[in-house]
Specification:
By secondary structure, the chain is mainly α. The protein is about 50% helix and about 5% strand.
């Protein structure tokens, strides 16, 4: 909508009238429909009727009150044309306390530095137009105000933080305050960011560690316990994702990249049996295995969202030190596929009556996909990226369970856009494979090595072709 403004001022002297006219011309050049008596009033017209019409006319969006010493005196004394205008304006203002139609522009200050304003305007917020420097400084502010486009706008309301939405039965998380301190340090570029980061990560790991099974659970309700623990552990998942999104956006660094790898190793520790336990069953630790798997996918999805493709590459090509409790002879290092997990225990609590889920773990991830910034589709895309790396990594195995919820003919932005050469470079960063032809060849070999043709759940259950989901035929086909 084009703003329409009437200018109310005092005919103090010819110089002031000329200045007012120059401002009117400048406003007109900025697209503001200006009403000025110098343009509008002709011989024989009633100037008082004109003034009243301009002040009360609903099509006039704003009245600019150019107040100097003469204007203030005439308004307060109700003399001359300004006195008539001010009577009309003051009534409008007093009748409508929230009236923002009237904008005082102060053109003069007294010897004490106070603005010359009529009494009825002294409580109103004004704009300084008292000298050329002030006009230049405040011109954009005025134009934005007329267009209803202020420089600073109140932010829209988001959703309550995750820790507010969680059940109060969950143990309190000290990681919340640690994260806020880290965020402030990053925003202010403080020294010792690594110290704030380490405190935050330690708080996250400690929280998750408190939920680890350290005594024989009631196996009769093991499924319900795993489900309840996964819900509580999703708080830690969200803490870690919030951190990855924040730091990868503000100040991604080599320290940050190494910290992600360190966190992933600590997650492997969390999913193993506590050192003080002498007897156990692997099913007792299923909640933490699922938590680690889910968090791994969320980290990949968060980094893709932030276009941190080198970090994705590092995660999927690094080796991770296993905790001593999971030592496998001389080989203590594992690849990314160690983060994979499935669930048999949750089958009984998640599957609808008289049915069987293809993947209870994927069903859990779907149910816990409660973030607006990283929806389920992003998690499925991350799962597909990990599968791609499994295809080109010797001896790696990965089954993309979440893809079961992709829906028929589902496509994913990272792979769809990679048909263009400039976007295919993102795939190059992630995989390290330089050409689309080489990538296609290696994926074909992996299909045979992993016997992908036997993964019938995807074709029968949701009509998904892994080859097509990765947009393999079209990669790097558009220059």
């Amino acid at each position: 909508m084009t703003p329409k403004a009437f200018i109310s001022y005092s005919h103090t002297n010819p110089q002031h009238q000329e200045l007012v006219r120059s401002w009117a011309e400048q406003l007109a050049s900025d697209g503001v429909d200006i009403i000025l008596d110098q343009y509008e009033l002709k011989e024989g017209q009633d100037k008082y009727a004109f003034m009243e019409r301009m002040v009360t006319d609903e099509t006039v969006t704003h009245v600019l009150i150019l107040s100097d010493k003469k204007y203030a005196e005439k308004a307060d004394n109700r003399t001359a044309g300004v006195g008539t205008e001010s009577q009309i304006i003051s009534k409008e203002i007093y009748d409508k306390v929230d009236q923002s139609k009237f904008i005082p522009l102060v053109c003069e200050f007294d010897e004490n530095g106070s603005p010359y304003l009529p009494v009825f305007l002294r409580s109103r917020i004004w704009i300084n137009f008292s000298n050329p420097e002030a006009v230049n400084e405040n011109w954009e502010r005025l134009v934005r105000l007329l267009y209803g486009k202020p420089l600073l706008e109140k932010p829209s309301l988001g959703k309550p933080p995750t820790y507010i939405r969680e059940d109060t039965q969950s143990p309190s998380s000290p990681a919340i305050s640690k994260f806020n301190m880290l965020r402030q340090a990053l925003m202010q570029q403080k020294r010792g960011i690594n110290l704030y980061r380490d405190d935050f990560i330690e708080a996250c790991i400690d929280y998750a560690d408190r939920l680890r099974t350290r005594a024989r659970p009631d196996v009769q309700i093991l499924g319900e316990k795993v489900l309840a623990d996964c819900k509580q552990l999703s708080i830690v998942r969200n803490h870690i994702v919030d951190w990855v999104l924040l730091e990868s956006h503000i100040s991604a660094s080599e320290e940050f990249s190494e910290s992600i790898l360190s966190v992933l190793e600590q997650l492997l520790e969390l999913r193993s049996k506590p050192s003080e336990m002498n007897s156990w069953n692997e099913a007792w630790f299923e909640a933490h295995r699922l938590f680690v798997y889910e968090t791994f996918l969320y980290i990949i999805a968060a980094l893709i969202k932030r276009t941190a493709f080198n970090d994705v590459h590092n995660i999927l090509t690094s080796h991770y030190l296993l905790p001593e409790s999971e030592s496998r002879g001389d080989n203590r290092f594992v690849k990314f596929d160690e983060f994979y997990a499935h669930s048999d225990t949750l089958q009984e609590v998640l599957a609808p009556k008289d049915t069987r889920l293809f993947s209870p773990a994927a069903e859990l991830i779907k149910r816990q996909a409660d973030r607006d910034d990283i929806p389920l589709r992003d998690i499925i895309q991350a799962d597909l990226v990990v599968l791609l790396l499994a295809f080109i990594t010797p001896d790696a195995n990965w089954y993309p369970q979440t893809l079961l919820y992709a829906g028929y003919n589902k496509q994913f932005p990272l792979f769809v856009r990679a048909a263009q050469h400039k976007h295919f470079k993102k795939i190059v960063h992630i995989t390290g494979v330089k050409t689309a032809d080489e990538l296609r060849e290696r994926v074909k070999e992996a299909h045979e090595r992993l016997q992908v043709n036997r993964w019938t759940d995807f074709s029968f259950h949701c009509g998904v072709s892994l080859w097509n989901a990765m947009n393999m035929d079209r990669l790097d086909s558009i220059t």
